């Protein structure tokens, strides 16, 4: 399998991308990793004895975090992100991963890779950690700010297929994000979507409130991109504040430092449980190729996790399963 990596996208590029590629190439020799970016920027981090299953494809432009997504994709055809997308489009790579500009990656998926026939709105689907350590796939998390009930139905089918093919969950539970668990709750969008999801060939378990998401009430939670993005950032912000307060309190006095030393192993487990690195790699589901968004602040370990998830998706035939399911509708 061949995976193109946008070597210039992300806060720690290209070091994190190159180091993750070296580690992944050594662990999975059946995977050909293509580092896309400026060869001169990549070279200092790529040893002369790097694994043979790593190659570099030149791309001398970079899409920055402040670039307007659609304009950047159209005006920077030699950017690392667009070139990686073109490799997927032309069948020279089975998937691409980028930690760069999220909007630009979505534009690359739509304008360069292209939508799957039958899909109206591709969805960005990151994983959230849950207390049972199974995780929950959430979509859409911001690819589309507005949605119709039919879009939420497609998201549910896409998410269910992903959890089955990539994570091996049989008959994944699908929930609808709402302000209450009762079927009659919500706005016009969620009420109409509820009726469609009840009739869909999925394991629909009803409405889910955002306060319950991290408890793992379902395997897939579906929502429009506006609500989903607010939920995503709220959870990220809350987690950041909690860990900051814990850190401050654990170092506030000598007794607190002693207590922190005793609790350190347990605190590490808590941090690992909610560490995005363990769930890194959000697919853009619904495009005609596997496009994966890594967290912008991904280090080498987080990027390797994204590569691992991408390998699993390719190996289990995710794209063909989605295409077959959509054709059957």
Task: From the structure above, extract its key features.
Isopropylmalate Dehydrogenase; five-stranded mixed β-sheet; phospholipid metabolism; alpha/beta; single chain; lipid metabolism; 329 residues
Please explain how this structure is put together:
- Catalyzes the reversible formation of acyl-phosphate (acyl-PO(4)) from acyl-[acyl-carrier-protein] (acyl-ACP). This enzyme utilizes acyl-ACP as fatty acyl donor, but not acyl-CoA.
- By secondary structure, this protein is of the alpha/beta class.
- It has 2 domains: 1-119 and 286-316, 3-Layer(aba) Sandwich (Isopropylmalate Dehydrogenase), CATH 3.40.718.10; 120-283, Isopropylmalate Dehydrogenase (3-Layer(aba) Sandwich), CATH 3.40.718.10.
- It contains 11 helices and 12 strands.
- The strands form 2 sheets. The protein has a 7-stranded mixed beta sheet, with helices on both faces. It has a 5-stranded mixed beta sheet with strand order 6-7-10-8-9, sandwiched between helices.
- Helix 3 packs across helix 5 (102-113).
- The protein is globular and about 60 Å long.
């Amino acid at each position: 399998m061949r995976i193109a990596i946008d070597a210039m996208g992300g806060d720690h590029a290209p070091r994190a991308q190159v180091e993750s590629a070296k580690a992944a190439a050594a662990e999975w020799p059946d995977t050909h990793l293509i580092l896309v970016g400026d060869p001169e920027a990549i070279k200092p981090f790529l040893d002369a004895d790097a694994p043979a299953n790593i190659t570099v494809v030149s791309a001398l432009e970079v899409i920055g975090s402040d670039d307007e997504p659609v304009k950047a994709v159209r005006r920077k055809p030699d950017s690392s992100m667009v070139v990686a997308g073109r490799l997927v489009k032309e069948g020279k790579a089975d998937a691409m991963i980028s930690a760069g500009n999220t909007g630009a990656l979505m534009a690359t998926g739509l304008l360069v890779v292209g939508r799957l026939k039958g899909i109206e709105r591709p969805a960005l689907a990151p994983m959230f950690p849950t207390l049972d350590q199974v995780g929950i796939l959430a979509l859409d998390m911001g690819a589309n700010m507005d949605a119709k009930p039919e879009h939420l139905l497609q998201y549910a089918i896409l998410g269910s297929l992903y959890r089955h093919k990539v994570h091996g969950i049989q008959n994944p539970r699908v929930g609808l994000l709402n302000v209450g668990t009762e079927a009659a709750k919500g706005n016009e969008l969620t009420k109409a979507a509820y009726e469609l999801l009840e009739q869909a060939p999925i394991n629909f378990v009803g409405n889910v409130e955002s306060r319950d998401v991290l408890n793992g009430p379902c395997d897939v939670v579906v929502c429009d991109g506006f609500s989903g993005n607010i939920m995503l950032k709220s959870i990220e912000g809350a987690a950041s504040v909690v860990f900051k307060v814990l850190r401050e309190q654990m170092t506030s006095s000598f007794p607190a430092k002693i207590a922190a030393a005793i609790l350190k192993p347990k605190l590490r487990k808590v941090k690992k449980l909610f560490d995005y690195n363990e769930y890194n790699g959000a697919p853009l589901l619904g495009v005609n190729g596997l496009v994966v968004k890594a967290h912008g602040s991904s280090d080498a370990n987080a990027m390797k996790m994204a590569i691992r998830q991408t390998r699993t998706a390719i190996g289990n035939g995710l794209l063909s399963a989605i295409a077959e399911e959509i054709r059957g509708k």
